[in-house]
Amino acid sequence: MKPGDRFYVVAHGKLRGWAPVVRVDVGGDGKSYAIIRHGGGVAATIDEAIPGFRGLRLRWWKREDEKPFENWRTP
């Protein structure tokens, strides 16, 4: 990841949105890292369920498939 990339948020089986990455910090051991983002998050979703997972995954959908996720609520 690098500044300008999108960090996507998934919860309750749905894409909930994304936030722009502003910085990636690497720990002193060279193995740990932190993905830093600030405001500017965007509520967005796709017409596809996303099963739960831990960690990071690469986006497999096209950005054109993303649509606004207006008035979303968790179940």
Structure description:
With 75 residues, the protein is an all-beta fold. It has one domain. It has no helices and five strands. It has strands spanning 6-11, 14-26, 33-37, 42-45, 67-68.
Any chance you could write out the topology, listing elements then pairs?
Elements lengths: L5 E6 L2 E13 L6 E5 L4 E4 L21 E2 L7
Q: Which characteristics define this entry?
A:
75 residues, mainly beta, 5-stranded antiparallel sheet, 0% helix
The structure class reads mainly beta
Low-confidence stretches: none
Give the biggest sheet: 5 strands, antiparallel
What value does the Rg take, in angstroms?
A: 14 Å
Mean of pLDDT: 89
In short:
0% of the residues lie in helices and 40% in strands. The chain has no helices and 5 strands. The protein has strands at 6-11, 14-26, 33-37, 42-45, 67-68.
